[in-house]
Amino acid sequence: MSTVNELKWLKSSYSEASGNACIEFAACDESRIAIRDSVYPRRLFSVGRRAFTSFVTATRSEMFHPGRR
User: Fold this and answer.
1) Which residues of 31-63 are buried (b: 16+ CB within 10 A; e: fewer)?
2) HSE-up (13 A, CA, CB side) for residue 25
3) What are the backbone angles phi and psi of residue 11, rounded to the nearest 5°?
4) CA–CA separation, 24 vs 38, rounded Å?
5) Is 41 left (phi over 0), alpha (psi -120 to 50) or beta?
6) Looking at residues 58-64, what average pLDDT do you find?
7) CA nearest 59: which of 2, 19, 15?
8) pLDDT in tens, 17-40
9) SS3 category, 57
10) 25, 9 in Cβ contact below 8 A?
11) Integer distance in angstroms from the first to the last C-alpha of the chain?
12) In the chain, which ranges are continuous DSSP H helix?
């Protein structure tokens, strides 16, 4: 796995516009995705790509906020 400084972090499109409350993610390797809060960038965790894809799909399907897009 790459070190935290080597990862190419991307900001979630659901993050706050001012950039102060951002969830960021990066590909660690072929099988893992790292996730962190931009306020605490050294605190991160990683999940499998399948789990990450399921989470993103559920978020887009309004599972967490019914009736809101």
Assistant:
1) ebbbbbebeeeeebebbeeeebeeeeeeeeeee
2) 16
3) -90, 140
4) 7
5) alpha
6) 76
7) 15
8) 666 678 899 999 999 999 998 888
9) helix
10) yes
11) 35
12) 49-60
